[in-house]
């Protein structure tokens, strides 16, 4: 029953965090002049249109089952044709930043909703609170992780769009190796470290201080405090 209860407090926050992240890319690209996502039917808040079987269902479920200290996943990437945009490099950065931006907004909304907890009865207020806490956690992790300046992450595309061409071009060429590098840092390095009795994940060591800083900042902005 513990697994069922835990899953029930993660499903909605995870679906909203992952799918709205992708939908935001498509909406902003359409607003800037690229109809590719709209033509593909991806300008939708329906999570089913954005679900990736492995990244949205299987991986998060496995992390829940093994009681991982974090939940992680992804949705189907929204198609964007940057050639349709009036200023491709600048607009690429704006479209890429939209995903982490909507995650940051969701975390802030979840904090504001804590003020409404007294409206719920004692039978459901803890469950609602856990949903909100999980929403804050996963949205801040996705926001900061995706803003790492490594293609194909959003932060890499923002960097490619903003850096001078002399720096942007070699960074853009890293995209073909970016996912491999991420998997090495996310999975292989922690596994290797654990063989020597060391509990260390370089990516989470990097993003955790930023996540904590954002959480503290949003707590203050939303009328809470630690």
Automatic annotation (TrEMBL):
Keyword Signal: no
Molecular function as annotated in GO: metal ion binding; metallopeptidase activity
InterPro entries linked to this entry: Metallopeptidase_M50B, Peptidase_M50, Rip2-like
Named cofactor requirement(s): Zn(2+)
Domain Peptidase M50: 126-186
Protein's cellular compartments: Cell membrane
GO biological process, one term: proteolysis
Membrane topology reported for the UniProt record: Multi-pass membrane protein
TM region positions: 12-33, 54-72, 92-114, 177-197, 203-221
Keywords in alphabetical order: Cell membrane, Hydrolase, Membrane, Metal-binding, Metalloprotease, Protease, Transmembrane, Transmembrane helix, Zinc
CDD domains: S2P-M50_like_1
GO cellular component: plasma membrane
Family assignment from sequence similarity: Belongs to the peptidase M50B family.
Protein name in the entry: Site-2 protease family protein
Organism: Ferrovibrio terrae
């Amino acid at each position: 029953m513990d697994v069922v209860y835990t899953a029930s407090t993660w499903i909605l926050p995870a679906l909203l965090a992952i799918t709205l992240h992708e939908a935001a890319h498509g909406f902003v690209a359409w607003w800037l002049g690229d109809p590719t996502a709209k033509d593909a039917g991806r300008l939708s808040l329906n999570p089913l249109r954005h679900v990736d079987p492995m990244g949205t269902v299987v991986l998060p479920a496995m992390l829940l089952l093994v009681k991982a200290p974090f939940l992680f996943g992804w949705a189907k990437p929204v198609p964007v044709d940057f050639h349709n945009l009036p200023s491709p490099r600048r607009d690429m950065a704006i479209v890429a930043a939209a995903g982490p931006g909507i995650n940051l907004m969701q975390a802030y909304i979840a904090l504001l909703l804590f003020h409404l907890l007294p409206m719920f009865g004692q039978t459901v207020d803890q469950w609602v609170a856990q949903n909100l806490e999980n929403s804050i956690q996963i949205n801040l992790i996705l926001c900061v992780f995706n803003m790492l300046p490594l293609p194909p992450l959003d932060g890499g595309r923002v960097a490619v769009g903003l850096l001078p061409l002399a720096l942007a071009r070699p960074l853009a060429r890293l995209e073909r190796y970016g996912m491999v590098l991420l998997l090495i840092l996310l999975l292989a390095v922690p596994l290797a470290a654990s063989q020597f009795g060391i509990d260390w994940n370089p990516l989470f060591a990097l993003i955790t201080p930023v996540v904590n800083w954002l959480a503290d900042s949003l707590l203050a902005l939303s009328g809470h405090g630690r």
